[in-house]
Every structure is written in structure tokens, then in C-alpha cells.
Specification:
Oligomer: heterodimer
Shape of chain B: elongated
Structural class of chain A: mainly alpha
Structural class of chain B: mainly alpha
Number of helices of chain A: 5
Largest sheet of chain A: none
Number of domains of chain A: 2
Number of strands of chain B: 0
Number of helices of chain B: 7
Distance between the termini of chain B: 70 Å
Largest sheet of chain B: none
Strand content of chain B: under 5%
Largest interface: A-B, 56 and 58 residues
Chain lengths: 133, 206
């Protein structure tokens, strides 16, 4: 593939251009519609759960909202952003995994540290509050 | 292969005369940008998670947020995502007019989203629940405002590309740009899922 006669070069170029156009989009009407319908369902359920107050327990509702949100993110990644393990030789997936790891560390670390900071804070008396800068 | 090289009368070339995957590397580079953008939002989400319950004796999410408005907003962004998908499908068919049409619809949905968000912000500030009211509201305005700013710039980018496509047609450069904006636009929708789940739904839940 490293060398071509001029004619081949043209043919190659034409083919190349076409394959790019095709390769780059790789979404079909069907996949977009699948993603869209799934997103509508996955959006409607949490809104309904909260607005109609389906569950008595707040914790159960919260778990459902977060879980459905996470599933919908994956749906968007697959059907709208066309994520797969093969695109760009797997580098987009590597970057995504790396980002998810960093995000997880940043989020859990922040909540952990700040939670401990709040609980271990010295109790403040009204007297001290008054003298605060 | 070697036969054709010897047969060819032109000088043999020992370097690449064409870049092998120019489009491909742009997509990867843009994906890396989106991942770094994702980190910005992660930090803002962490800030909101830490400060989101510090109301400073002010209003709480349940007092402030109108979930109907948020549901309409979410629908707008979701619809704009699918219409952008339609634009991409038309682009692959090389249909310039249809591509422009769907891009225009996408822009309209995006504009409605921004308008509703601005309405919400103005309404909140008018009620005395501006960003300076409490730590919760500072974090809220920063997170949602940053997302809104991204969408605003996405719309500006979209309009720019519509002018470009109208003037120069669906040339490879414009296709590449449309692909990048497509990723950007869908990415913002992914971030919005986090916003409406964590900030609005869990906020109203209390």
C-alpha cells in the first residue's frame, strides 16, 4: 500500500474518500431511532417516579433515578456517539475508560474528604460564630 | 506491488505522499477534547455534590425547581440530538438541502432550550434566589450555566457550519467539522442526563 502507480493512486484515493464517509458516520436511521426511543423511555421513567411520587421511600427513588440516568448515558454513548471498542483502534475507548476512572476518583474522593471534614469539624458555639471574621 | 513500482516511469518516492488517516486522527483528537471537557463537568458536579445542601437558610431545590419546565427542556435537547442524527444521515447521502434543513431544526431546538433555561435563571434571580444567595445556588448556577454556555457555543458553531455548508457544499472539510459538532452536541446531551438526574430530580426529591 505504500507505493502506487498514478492511476492506482486515483482509484485508491476515490475509494479512500468513500470509505471514510461511510466509516465516519456509521449510524443508520434504525440505530438512531432505537437510541431515541430508548432515551425517551429512560427519561420518562425517572421524571414520572419523582413527579408522581410512585415510591414511598426516597432512597429507592434516588437509586432508580441514578441507575436509569447511568443506563441512558450508555445508550447515548452507543447509539448517538457510536462508541465501540474498535473505533480508532480502541483509543477512544481507552480515553473513555481513563476519563471514567479519573472522574470516579475525583467524585468519590471529594465526597469522602468533604464528608469527613463536615463530621469532624469542631462544633461551633454561638459565641464563636459571633466572633467569626 | 514491487512490479508496479519498477514499471512506473516516475521517480520512486520513499515518503508518504498523503496523510493516511487525516479524518480519523481529528476524530480521536476531538474525542480527547470532549473527555477533558468531561473532567470540567465532573469537577462542577463534585462541587455541587459537596455544596448542594448548604442552603444558608435560603430556598431548597424543592422550593425552586419546576419539574415540568425541566421535562420540556430535556425533551428539547433530546429532540435536537435525534434531528442532528438525521442531519448526519442526510450528509452521508450527500443531500445538502436536507442536511441544512435538519441542522436548522436542531438549532431551533437548541435555541428553545437556551431560552427556557434563561427564563428559569431570570425567574430564580427575580425571586431572590440568585447565585449569591447560598452555596447551593452558587454551585447550581455554575454547573447548569456552564452547560448552557456549552450549548450556546454549540449553536454558534452550528450556525457557522450551516453558512459554510451553504456556501461550499458538503466538502470533506465541512463533513469533518459536522462530525466534530455531532460529537460535541451528543456529548452535551449526555452531560444533561447527569444534570437533570442529579440536580433537578434528586434535588426535588430532597
Amino acid at each position: 500500500m505504500s507505493s502506487h502507480a498514478p492511476v492506482h493512486e486515483d482509484a485508491h484515493e476515490a475509494h479512500h474518500g468513500h470509505s471514510h464517509g461511510h466509516e465516519a458516520g456509521h449510524g443508520s436511521l434504525k440505530s438512531y431511532m432505537t437510541g431515541f426511543v430508548l432515551s425517551i423511555i429512560l427519561t420518562a421513567i425517572p421524571f414520572w417516579l419523582v413527579m408522581a411520587g410512585v415510591f414511598e421511600s426516597r432512597a429507592i427513588t434516588a437509586v432508580f433515578v441514578i441507575a436509569l440516568g447511568a443506563v441512558q448515558m450508555v445508550v447515548h454513548m452507543i447509539y448517538f456517539l457510536h462508541m465501540n471498542t474498535k473505533s480508532e483502534g480502541g483509543w477512544t475507548m481507552m480515553a473513555l475508560i481513563f476519563t471514567i476512572v479519573i472522574v470516579a476518583i475525583a467524585l468519590s474522593g471529594s465526597f469522602w474528604v468533604m464528608h469527613h471534614l463536615n463530621t469532624n469539624m469542631m462544633p461551633m458555639s454561638p459565641e464563636m460564630m459571633k466572633n467569626m471574621p | 506491488m514491487s512490479d508496479t513500482m519498477i514499471d512506473a516511469t516516475e521517480k520512486p518516492q520513499f515518503y508518504l505522499t498523503e496523510e493516511h488517516h487525516p479524518e480519523s486522527s481529528t476524530m480521536l483528537g476531538f474525542w480527547l477534547y470532549l473527555m477533558s471537557d468531561c473532567l470540567i463537568f465532573a469537577v462542577l458536579f463534585a462541587t455541587y455534590g459537596v455544596l448542594g445542601r448548604n442552603y444558608a437558610a435560603g430556598p431548597s431545590p424543592a422550593d425552586l425547581f419546576d419539574l415540568t419546565l425541566v421535562a420540556i427542556n430535556t425533551a428539547m435537547l433530546l429532540l435536537s440530538s435525534i434531528t442532528y442524527g438525521f442531519a448526519m444521515l442526510q450528509m452521508e447521502r450527500n443531500a445538502k438541502a436536507e442536511t441544512l434543513f435538519w441542522l436548522g431544526i436542531t438549532g431551533l431546538f437548541g435555541a428553545v432550550f437556551i431560552a427556557l433555561e434563561l427564563y428559569e435563571f431570570i425567574h430564580l434571580i427575580h425571586e431572590g434566589a440568585g447565585p449569591s444567595r447560598s452555596a447551593f445556588l452558587s454551585a447550581f448556577f455554575t454547573l447548569v450555566g456552564t452547560h448552557g454556555l456549552h450549548v450556546t457555543f454549540g449553536i454558534i458553531w452550528l450556525v457557522t457550519l450551516m453558512v459554510q455548508v451553504n456556501r461550499h457544499g458538503l466538502i470533506p472539510a465541512n463533513r469533518r467539522r459536522l462530525m466534530c459538532l455531532s460529537m460535541f452536541w451528543h456529548f452535551l446531551d449526555v452531560v444533561w442526563i447527569g444534570v437533570f438526574s442529579i440536580v433537578y430530580l434528586l434535588g426535588v426529591l430532597g
